[in-house]
Design a protein that fits this description.
alpha+beta, Immunoglobulin-like, TIM Barrel, 3 domains, nine-stranded parallel β-sheet, 14 helices, binds alpha-D-glucopyranose
Length: about 750
């Protein structure tokens, strides 16, 4: 709580609820009311209710000079913008990173061909806009789950936000940096839960793997081919006549046996669950939901019925806590079989009728405050995932569930990961997955990714190879494809493509310590897992709309090739020095470079000062983890770098009771001396790494020494030591083996 100067005109003091306790001072200044927080001032002009937001120095952050309502009670707010404004966020939208000149609708929709630039509404609606003005950034979150429109096209030096139903209930979020806006927005709407580590592995899917034998065969093939994989998804054909919470008795006669067999292979099952419950008086789920009145109703009190995969179906009323609890508990059917993850699809909800969804005048009970479907349409999918995540958690004996959702609203990140729906095997769709997932990340939804290889249409070996290279570094990594398209498992196009897919999926698994640490950062601070360069280099004009390359955390820069027959591409390296991950070549940043990228190469760069944590790539995160950690230091000649390395058991919620390890790593290089500090901030998990192999790469020294353990004559001798080091002058690499348990350590490399 910040104490504030008292002014004579103070009328009221209010404590705004929110992430941080903030004191508001409200004053009557004659022509306007002034609302002051510890960060900014809002001026509300009495004459026309226009709003002005300024920072403490009086600098204008935003102006909302007009609000209006039409006769149908649709409301609109207009905000002034400068000529040099850039817009980001808005969740899952097509187009580029910068949303200047675009118009989007928020109305969760299942479109047949959704990933084209003129589509204004997709499966997710995150009504959160980041406005980046040259001097400072701010965010506007419209908390309205009905239909709304963000228009950055029509009003010249202004943008408008319009709500069809409900009010213009918006939050103004000051920066000054985009990072501050994202942090505050996610403090308000929530951050990802640390997911089970297996869900960060590779997922394989197909609409559909048709029977138990095919699923088992798929798993065995992954193991024979030594391609890492943690998850196989079951699409709608596993069910008995598309009835949710059933297995087809002929195609899947022994799901429990299948799941047990798969577990031995290190693979888990994630079955699809749609919200539509088949209207079948003989079917238990329908009977229970009907008897307890848990389905959405029409205004005349009869259940809303709409066709989806099972034919005429009814839809649980997830706005009501009672229905959510019932639905959550139905998942015991799965948890009792050993299933720990659920895939929520069609939850916009998509209905095969004229409205393409539940009728807008249908009713939701909403815990005793009835609302129409139109007023809360965009909440439906998120509330389904909330019910699912909570039900699974209740039934998993302390293990973390994984939920994947197609639809969502602001806050979906608390319950589910998100995939971007039905893209197609087009190069263009691979390219647009980058800005889409980057903007999802800026909108709080950091655990997301597209169907790798493309869902509809037919992929090619080349497209699959390139898409897998990119997808291997995305937060959510799943290959999924549609009925009757060519097969696109990693081995479907012969050995060359298979090798490329294997190599990059392995890269993902070897970077698991880094990836998991970045997931933890997202869970703690809301920072996206993959980031547009803009987030880390906000002053650089070259990156305002750069979205064909991205950062994983803040240390690795990937620049995928997303065109056919293309083996070179331009890469922008921001300020500082960078190293080519593959060749080790040092490149000066602040300029464009030409990357040579034959089909087996993803252009990937490491920032000078980076501390990259790796492990031996396992074929599944379930298999016993390697106890050896590798830390590659991209030694800064004159500079520094830092990384927070996090670890826990990867499956339970014990980390909430402090069963985790957090190491603050820091490297500094100056005048021929390099220092690496490893500071165990917290060590509450004893299953962590027992052997640490640290390599100082790119040392510009003819000779050097280290005061730690014994000096080994060569690599082989070093392997045998519990503590010691070796300098390979040809490679310019000093390798140290550290012994556990790791106390505060400082390694100082000195020239000699
Ligand atoms: C929807 C989903 C897709 C799934 C299909 C069948 O189109 O987006 O991923 O495979 O339904 O369930």
């Amino acid at each position: 709580m910040v104490s504030m100067k008292m002014t004579p005109a103070i009328m009221e003091r209010k404590s705004a609820s929110g992430a941080a306790e903030t004191e508001l001072l409200v004053a009557d200044a004659g022509s306007a009311y002034l609302i002051e927080t510890d960060e900014m001032m809002v001026e509300v002009v009495k004459l026309d209710a226009s709003l002005r937001f300024t920072d403490k120095s009086g600098r204008i952050l935003a102006r909302n000079p007009m609000m209006a309502w039409n006769e149908y009670k649709s409301a609109i707010a207009l905000f002034r913008a400068s000529e040099n404004v850039h817009y980001y966020g808005l969740g899952e939208k097509t187009g580029y990173l910068d949303k200047r000149g675009e118009r989007y609708e928020m109305w969760n929709s299942d479109n047949y061909a959704p990933h084209v630039p003129e589509i204004e509404a997709l499966y997710q609606s995150i009504p959160f806009l980041i406005v980046n003005e040259p001097e400072s950034a701010c965010g506007i979150f419209l908390d309205n789950p009905g239909r709304s429109v963000f228009d950055m096209r029509t009003s010249g030096q202004a943008f408008t936000i319009q709500a069809e139903t409900g009010g213009l209930d918006y939050y103004f979020i000051p920066g000054p940096q985009i990072k501050d806006v994202v942090k505050k927005y996610t403090a308000l709407t929530g951050r990802i839960q640390l997911p089970p580590q297996w869900s960060i592995g590779y997922h394989q899917s197909r609409y559909s793997y048709m029977d138990q034998e095919e699923v088992l065969e798929m798993a065995r093939t992954f193991r024979e081919k030594e391609i890492p994989c943690d998850v196989i998804h079951l699409d709608i054909h596993y069910m008995d006549g598309y009835r949710v919470f059933t297995f087809d008795p002929v195609r899947f006669p022994d799901p429990k046996g299948m799941i047990a067999e798969l577990k031995k292979l290190g693979i888990r099952i994630v079955p699809i669950i749609d919200p539509g419950v088949k209207l079948d008086p003989e079917y238990g789920v329908y009977q229970e939901g009907t008897a307890s009145e848990l389905f959405c109703m029409k205004p005349d009190g009869s259940p809303f019925v709409g066709p989806v995969w099972p034919g005429p179906s009814v839809f649980p009323d997830f706005s009501d806590a009672k229905a959510r609890e019932w639905w959550g508990d139905l998942h015991r059917f799965f948890t009792e079989m050993g299933i720990e993850g659920i895939w929520n699809d069609m939850n916009e909800p998509s209905v095969f009728n004229e409205n393409k969804t539940i009728d807008p005048d249908a009713l939701h009970k909403n815990n005793g405050n009835p609302v129409t479907h139109g007023e809360i349409h965009n909440l439906y999918g998120m509330l389904m995932s909330k019910a699912t995540a909570e039900g699974m958690t209740r039934n998993l004996d302390g293990r973390r569930p994984f939920v994947l959702s197609r639809a969502g609203y602001a806050g979906i990140q608390r319950y589910a990961a998100v995939w971007t729906g039905d893209n197609r095997s087009f190069w263009e769709h691979m390219a647009l997955a980058m800005p889409m997932v980057l903007n999802l990340g800026l909108s709080g939804v950091s655990f997301s990714g597209p169907d790798i290889g493309g869902f509809g249409h037919h992929t090619t070996g080349e497209l699959l190879a390139r898409w897998t290279q990119m997808g291997a570094l995305f937060p959510f990594c799943r290959n999924h494809s549609m009925l009757e398209t060519v097969r696109q498992e990693p081995w479907s196009f012969g050995p060359e493509i298979e090798d490329i897919c294997r190599e990059y999926i392995r890269l993902r698994y070897s970077l698991m310590p880094l990836l998991y640490s970045v997931f933890r950062e997202a869970a703690e601070t809301g920072m996206p897992i993959i980031r547009p360069l803009l987030l880390e280099y906000p002053e650089d004009p070259n990156v305002a709309n750069l979205c064909d390359q991205f950062l994983l955390g803040d240390q690795l820069l990937a620049a995928p090739v997303y065109r056919p027959d293309t083996f070179h591409r331009v890469v922008y390296l921001p300020e500082g020095n960078w190293f080519d991950y593959r060749t080790g070549e040092k490149l000066e940043g602040g300029r464009h470079v030409m990357a040579h990228a034959p089909l087996d190469t993803l252009p990937l760069y490491v920032k000078e000062g980076a501390i990259i944590s790796r492990t031996a790539a396992a074929e599944s995160t379930i298999f016993e983890r390697s106890t050896e950690l590798f830390l590659d230091i991209y030694t800064p000649e004159n500079g520094e770098g830092a990384f927070d390395l996090y670890d826990d058991d990867g499956t339970t919620f014990d980390y909430k009771d402090k069963a985790y390890n957090l190491y603050r790593l820091r490297v500094e290089g100056a005048e021929g001396t390099v220092r690496l500090g490893v500071h165990p901030e917290w060590t509450g998990y004893d299953g962590g790494w027992k052997k640490w192999t640290v390599t100082f790469k790119h040392l510009q020294l003819a000779g050097c020494c280290l005061e730690y353990g014994k000096e080994a004559a060569n690599r082989e001798e070093l392997e045998a030591l519990t503590e010691g080091w070796h300098f390979d002058s040809d490679a310019g690499e000093l390798t140290v083996v550290l012994n556990q348990p790791l106390e505060d350590v400082e390694l100082v490399v000195k020239a000699r």
